Amino acid sequence: MIILKPPPQCASRIPSLRLSTLFLHSGALDAKLPAAVEEDDDAETVYRMISGSNLQGESLRSSGIHLSKDLIDRVLKRVRFSHGNPLQALDFYRYAAARRGFSHSSFSLDTMLYILGRNRKFDQIWEVLIEAKRKDRSLITPRTMQVVLGRVAKLSSLRQTVESFWKFKRLVPPHFFHTSASLNALLTTLCQEKTMTDARNVYHSLKHQFQPDLQTFNILLSGWRSSEEAEAFFHEMREKGLKPDVVTYNSLIDVYCKAREMDKAYKLIDKMREEDVTPDVITYTTLIGGLGLIGQPDKAREVLKEMKEYGCYPDVPAYNAAIRNYCISRRLRDADMLVDEMVKKGLSPNATTYNLFFRVLSLSNDLGRSWELYERMLGNGCLPNTQSCMFLIKMFKRHERVDMALRFWEDMVVKGFGSYSLVSDVLLDLLCDLAKVDEAEKCLLEMVDKGHRPSNVSFKRIMLLMELANKHEELSNLKQKMAVFSTEIQQ
């Protein structure tokens, strides 16, 4: 089946994209869907209560909704992804915790801490952790440490991050803190939010106070651009008598592939087999990506065939890696053939697969085929992710296609995909540039009604347009709706 038909004038320049009819088959709906919908309705109801009322305790009691751990998990998750009011969420969290015999889940604790950290409420973070220590210390896990340290590291210095790490010593039992799990939580944070050099230096300063394990070195091996640095940790791990596993080898192979040292990558795979460590699908996917970096997409495709000979079968990410290589080379016919191949093997292309083609079409500024691919994507039951949304909304803005942008926004609202905050910035910018005040007001109200807060810049532009259009009553209504958000919009 043709997934994207090129216009005649483009036929010779960019080949068509096709998907097998097998991809059109959809699974049956879950028999438990009505119950799931009802649970989601309860989560939405509670979310709106805590977002729009200062008397949430009374509102929650009169609602008759049972605040189970699962429901609280989903409500806090809703707050997190909607960028809701952190202090109102904290009031709700404490209200639920104050009930007799109730204890939050680790997920709720971690989510609450993430919400507070994102909004720089660090004093409240430590208050919540002290409360958790008093009620149920077991809720504070290495994952909790990583959540808190991640928010601190993103906004603070390396020194402050390490100081925050040591604060956990007073919150958890000594035998828990002085473990490799705690050290690993810190090192993972530093690798993600700081630099690998920071992680290396902190490791060397703490390795005599903690007992590094295999996971410690797996963390330290990932992310290096220099193969020499990664090899140094690999040798130190060996010296400590730790035997590398498939994750260890995959991390080092990834370093070699990103450094375009493919000979070393192949030799390490041979060494894995010699030591009876079986390469897995991640090993081969990494190799496929590395071959793409050195401009050998055909050899990368051969890896898909070779891995089967070793009893390892490619999954969607493996195919995506090979498809990406062809897309980068603008060999879309070959990329399309791989899509057909994966579909025939029972694998469904995901949003990442589509994004590989969206990227090529975006670089070609091909609006028509991008829109057709988007419609096919929805028709095949695959919802766009954030990257898909940004490819599309930016193209609509470049072409000043308000009709497409509004249709796309409507799909987002109805189907529940995409990032409201990121997409709305581009959409509202387009509408304001073209003085589409009614459309901008409508989109912003839909966003607010869904519990998502627009950016200051977007809100200010719409306020100015509404004032110039003498829409004073509508503007007053909009400001009232915006009052549910914690951060005041500066006028």
TrEMBL record:
One Pfam family here: PPR_2
The PPR repeat ranges on this chain: 245-279, 280-314, 315-349, 350-384
Which keywords accompany this UniProt record?
Repeat
Q: Which InterPro entries would you find in this protein's record? A: PPR_rpt (IPR002885), TPR-like_helical_dom_sf (IPR011990)
Give the Gene3D superfamilies listed for this entry: Tetratricopeptide repeat domain
Q: Which NCBIfam families match?
A: PPR (TIGR00756)
Q: Which family does it belong to?
A: Belongs to the PPR family. P subfamily.
Q: What is this protein called?
A: Pentatricopeptide repeat-containing protein
Q: Which organism is it from?
A: Brassica carinata (Ethiopian mustard)
